[in-house]
Every structure is written in C-alpha cells, then in structure tokens.
Write a structure and sequence with these properties.
Sigma-54 dependent transcriptional regulator; Rossmann fold; binds adenosine-5'-triphosphate; five-stranded parallel sheet; alpha/beta; 4 domains; sequence-specific DNA binding; ATP binding; disordered N terminus; 474 residues; binds magnesium ion; 14 strands
Length: 474
C-alpha cells in the first residue's frame, strides 16, 4: 500500500468505567474506522500512520481525572476530541467541556456518532482528503457488471443464501453489502466475518458466543456472530477456508436456526440472511472432499459471479479509475487522455483493489507536483509490471475471454430464473412439488435449473439431487 491517503480513521477512546468503546465499535462496524482503547494518562501510541486522521473520544469522568490532565496533548496536536457526558453532568461547571472538544450525550446513537466523527475526521485532514469519507461509488459500466448488479438487486430482498464468487479484489464484499442495503432488513446489522482469520480453537466462542463464566476470562456474556447478525445479514468471507469440522457446525445452525452459547444451557433462535464469498473454486473443493457438498448446496442457492477487471474490459477500468480519483482530488477536469488509456490497457492482477492503489499513487503525484507528472506516474505502472512478472501474469491487458466462467443470462432468462427460484422457495426446494407447481415434469425443471444456473438447492434428500448430479455445474 502506498503511503499517503488512507480511507481509515483512528478513533482512540479514553474511558473510565463506561462502555463507550464497545458501543462505538458496534456503531462503526463495517466502516473504515479503527476503534482503539487508550490508556488513561497516556498519549496515543506512536507509530501510527500520520496521514490517517485521528479523533479522540473521551468520557467526562476521564476528562476530569487528574491522570488524563485534560488531555492537552491532544489539543496541542490538533486532534479533535469528542467529549461524552450524561446530560446532567454536562451542566455541572466542573465538567464543562474544554474549548477544543465537541460533545455527544452519553446516550449517543450510532448515527450521531458517525455524523460527528466523519465531520471531525474530514476537518482534521487536508481539504482534499475530506471527500474520501463520501459514500464509495460502485462503478459498473460494462455489460457483465450491469448484469451482475441487476441480478443482485433482484435477489436482494429474498432470504435465501447467496454465494458470491470471483477473483481477489473484484468487489465481492461490495456486492454483499449491496445485497444487504437493498433488502428490507437493511436497517438491521451487517456482520462481516473473514472465515480465514478466525483463530483455531476460537471458532465456537466467536460464532456461538459464550455465557458468563463459560471459560477463564469470560467475565461477561458475549453474543457470537450468529446472534449479532440476527435480524440482518451474516457475511461469511473466504468461506472456502472454513475447516471441515466448522462446516458441520455452520450447517447445523443453518438447518435449525438455533444456537447455544458456550457454557449456556438454553437455545437462542437466530434469523439472518447468509451471504458467503469465496475466491476458490468451491465445486473443486467439494470434489476433493475439502468442502461438504450439503453445505455447498445450502450456501449456493443463488450464485453470483463477480467478473474480473479483464472480463469487464477497458471501459470499466477507465470509469472506476476516474470515479476513485474524483474522491481523492478536488479537480480532475484536466485528467490527461494518455493516463486514462494507460489504465485501460493495464492488466490488474489484483483487480479493483490494485487499481485503487494506482489511484492513490496518482493522486499523491498530482498533489505533490501540481501536475500530472508523467515520469513519476509511469513508475507505478512499472512497479505493477514488476509484480506481474514475479507472479507470472502478463502486465498488459489480454483480450477478454470469449465467455466468462458463467455465461451471462439474457433479460428473459433472468426473469424466468426468478420465477423458478420463487417456485422452488415456495415448495421448500422439493423438485417434485416445484415441478407440479410450475406444471412441468421434474426432468424439464432440472434442465431449466441447469440452464438458468440455479444451484442444486437446499437440503440433501434424494429428491433434491438431479440426474447426473455431479455434472450439474460442469
Ligand atoms: N465496482 C467498483 N467500483 C468502485 N470500487 C470498487 C468496485 N468494486 C470494488 N471496489 C473497491 O475495491 C476494493 C476491493 O473490493 P472488495 O473488498 O469488495 O473485493 P473482494 O472481492 O471482497 O476482495 P478479496 O477477494 O480480496 O476479499 C474495495 O476498496 C472496494 O471499495
Ligand atoms: Mg473480500
């Protein structure tokens, strides 16, 4: 990652006995904010990225504590301070907020915190960086991306599981977020979990939560991801990395919709929409015995493939480049054509993520040089070429493959796919009943599902497996 502009904000919380940090964390889940607890009486640790805006959040009890000393060091370096106090404390002259602080009531809502935080972080950063906290654009100009978005919108509001697959950095998480934002439960939680990053042995504690005193250190009860996501969306990223024994546990929760916290005796009902993502070929993992077929079928009720930048073509690369650059720089009206063409002709092995690194680099050059210094901008493309050589990928764009991994469905086919999906849903994914419902034979239904790229359905009963089951996705 190039140094310079970062989209992240550091939020340091100094608190006494309150739970401000926990509530801040909850309100800011899914946003690019690192919430960190700071030691009483100590300045924030050194070694932070100075380009990242920092905001402090201080509870009134700490602010008036001699060990905090009023936090003058924060004011001295121009750090904005959010002062959190119960309303009646705020009226007590001993607890008046210092001149450099902004106030939030102790009963602050997530929306209040976010509004103030992003405003302060923007002010703390150079004016040019302020725009980085604007909503991120989701650019889709090419036909395959537009198809994908319309498909995502179509399936956003149904509770069935979705499996998103695609190469690294293509925007799988953005699609997961879109599915949540367009659903009727969008006001509910969106809990994103990287399955590859769950420490061994802590799967149960993280996913199922624990009761008070369940193990040493479990001082309070804790909700796991399943419960946290209830009423919203659970996004399981890198699902292909889930070890087999964890797959069994996940499958059981999906089947029964109840969980038991570690050390608890009672069951808790959970209700969430599951969206999973992977950059691995899950079908191959099923074939090799590394991924359970029954879980695969349950996850892949709806499958969405996010095309690579190469598959999307030069127009998407140019459009994403411009849109991301506009967020970094106040004015891109004089963006030179050679630069847009250079981007469009480059092959980004790391897809949109790599392209956004190029954007950061270009923005820094533009700001530091005051012009589009070609020599310096070229260096980033040279560096990309070096990386590609190491990774063995050609650096310049290859012609897009004739057909993407999933042929794109026509509008009529998409409408039919939706009709069949609804019928399957209405009949609990039982082929026999669904076929009768649609007035067609089981064989015709099977063929339709295959043509319309509908995965094998939920459950494992023989009725749900079609003829030549293994070849269904080949
Ligand atoms: N269509 C798009 N328009 C603009 N920005 C995008 C688009 N798609 C992805 N991005 C940006 O690219 C970066 C990578 O996206 P995302 O994290 O969703 O990819 P991913 O497929 O989940 O990656 P990984 O496989 O590494 O988990 C993010 O910063 C995201 O905001
Ligand atoms: Mg991801």
């Amino acid at each position: 990652m190039t140094a310079g502009i970062s989209e992240e904000i550091d939020l340091y919380v100094w608190e006494g006995a309150s739970d401000i940090a926990v509530r801040a964390e909850r309100s800011l889940a899914g946003y690019d904010v690192n919430v960190m607890r700071a030691e009483l009486g100590m300045a924030p640790p050194g070694g932070r990225d100075p380009n990242r805006p920092m905001v402090a959040m201080v509870s009134v009890t700490v602010m008036s504590d001699a060990r905090f000393g009023g936090g003058e060091w924060l004011a001295a370096q121009g750090t904005p301070v959010i002062w959190v106090a119960a309303e009646e404390r705020g009226r007590d002259p001993r607890f008046y907020p210092p001149a450099y602080s902004h106030t939030l009531p102790l009963s602050f809502t997530g929306a209040e915190l976010r509004a103030l935080l992003f405003r302060l972080a923007g002010a703390a950063q150079q004016a040019a960086h302020t725009s980085a906290h604007a909503p991120k654009p989701l650019v889709a100009v090419s036909a395959p991306m537009r198809e994908l978005l319309s498909e995502a919108e179509m399936f956003a509001d149904c509770r069935t599981s979705v499996l998103i697959h695609g190469e690294t950095g293509v925007g799988k998480e953005r699609i997961a977020r879109l599915l949540h934002d367009r659903a009727t439960w969008s006001a509910g939680p969106f809990v994103a979990v990287n399955c590859g990053a769950v420490p061994e042995g802590l799967f149960e504690a993280h996913f199922f939560g624990h009761a008070k005193g369940a193990f040493t250190g479990a001082v309070g009860a804790h909700k796991g991801y399943f419960e946290q996501a209830s009423g919203g969306t659970l996004f399981l990223d890198e699902i292909g990395d889930l070890p087999l024994y964890q797959q069994v546990k996940l499958l059981r929760v999906l089947e029964q919709n109840v969980i038991t916290r570690l050390g608890a005796t009672t069951e808790v009902a959970v209700d969430f929409r599951l969206v999973a993502a992977t950059n691995r070929d899950l079908r191959k993992r099923v074939a090799s015995g590394d991924f359970r077929a029954d879980l695969y079928y349950r996850l892949a009720v709806i499958e969405l493939y996010v095309p690579t930048l190469e598959e999307r073509g030069p127009e998407d690369k140019a459009a994403i480049f411009k849109a991301l650059l506009e967020r970094e720089l106040p004015d891109v009206s004089d963006l030179p054509q050679w630069l847009v063409e250079r981007v469009a002709a480059t092959r980004f092995a790391g897809n949109v993520r790599e392209l956004s690194n190029v954007v950061e680099w270009v923005a820094i050059v533009r700001r530091q040089c005051g012009n589009w210094n070609r020599e310096r901008i070229e260096r980033v493309f040279e560096r990309l070429a070096d990386c590609s050589r190491i990774l063995g990928v050609p650096a310049s764009a290859a012609p897009a493959p004739a057909a993407a991994q999933h042929p794109v469905l026509s509008e009529a086919e998409q409408a039919e796919r939706a009709r069949v999906m609804v019928a399957l849903e209405a009949n609990g994914w039982r082929r026999q009943d669904t076929a009768a419902y649609l007035g067609i034979s089981r064989k015709v239904l099977w063929e339709k599902m295959r043509k319309l790229q509908i995965a094998g359905g939920q459950g494992e009963s023989a009725d749900m497996l079609g003829p030549g089951d293994g070849g269904a996705y080949s």
